[in-house]
Specification:
Length: 58
């Protein structure tokens, strides 16, 4: 996504994702705030914590 935004769009953009795509958009927005103007999550899913933290809670 970062490469597509940088090479094709060429300016800051709002990324929109549904389900696992929402998680991908969230990651791109968090890691590359210089190219992402905003994030829209629709029915978002994904691992929002580290797997080790989940194991420690069990």
């Amino acid at each position: 996504m970062r490469d597509f935004i940088s090479e094709v769009i060429g300016e800051k953009t709002v990324v929109v994702g549904n389900s696992l795509g929402g998680y991908a958009c969230l990651c791109v927005g968090a890691e590359y705030p210089d190219i992402v103007a905003g994030v829209v999550l629709l029915n978002s899913a994904g691992p929002f914590s580290e797997p080790e933290a989940i194991q420690a809670q069990i």
